[in-house]
Design goal:
Blueprint: E1 3-4, E2 9-10, E3 15-16, E4 21-22, E5 27-28, E6 33-34, E7 39-40, E8 45-46, E9 50-52, E10 57-58, E11 63-66, E12 79-82, E13 87-88, E14 93-95, E15 103-106, E16 111-112, E17 117-118, E18 123-124, E19 129-130, E20 135-136, E21 141-142, E22 147-148, E23 153-154, E24 159-160, E25 165-166, E26 171-172, E27 180-183, E28 188-192, H1 194-199, H2 204-219, H3 223-233, H4 238-249
Length: 256
Amino acid sequence: MNTISPLAYVHPEAQLGDNNVIGPFCYIDRNTVIGDNNVLQNSVTIHYGARIGNNNEFFPGASISTKPQDLKFKGEDTICVIGNNNSIRESVTISRGTASKGQTTIGNDCLLMENMHVAHDCVLGNHLIIGNSTKIAGEVTIDDYAIISATCLIHQFCRVGGYGMFQGGSRTSQDIPPYIIAGKEPIRYAGVNIIGLRRHGFSNELIEQIHEAYRILYSKGLMAEGIQEIRRTLPDIPEINYITQFVESSKRGIIR
């Protein structure tokens, strides 16, 4: 049974699962699907096209599946998909997709802190922490277990690798490869995220191999030369392959 405040509005065509709590002054539009055990504190807006999983908590002022802030958007029927067990804090805004991808996606077990923005067609993975007032432009991809600190700016079409840390107040218009700390002005490689990797159970030997991969990569004038040497000298393991494949597939180039 859902608990819905008499001061909330839920469109008759909205689909709600079970055991949801809808606080006062919430607005839930048509063409929305909300799973089970979600909590919407007061003044949360769920716009057209939202697809929300289970066990999420939305704090006051959150606005989900908003119309994209993209002049190319012509009203196409798109969605915003949010997984399970996410904490979406005060005044977070998440846009739905455009004709480009058709949807914006947020994974599971993420913490999106106060006043941050996720633009249209982004793909955010699982177990992310994204800090206060960070702004993520359209069609950005963020891999699992990344930490984006407060007041960061990420340019459209960029990709941020997993298990890394993006230092507060930084901005990037290039891709940030996995396992590293990125920061300073202008943004650059600031070492391997050793503490974060240890917290996730990476062995000292594996961390040293990741460090050696980046030592090789950044010591070469051409990234292709670095990738060749990494593959020639380091073990063929998933973590090293993730680094080389990330760099090879980068469309905007990686930070140096």
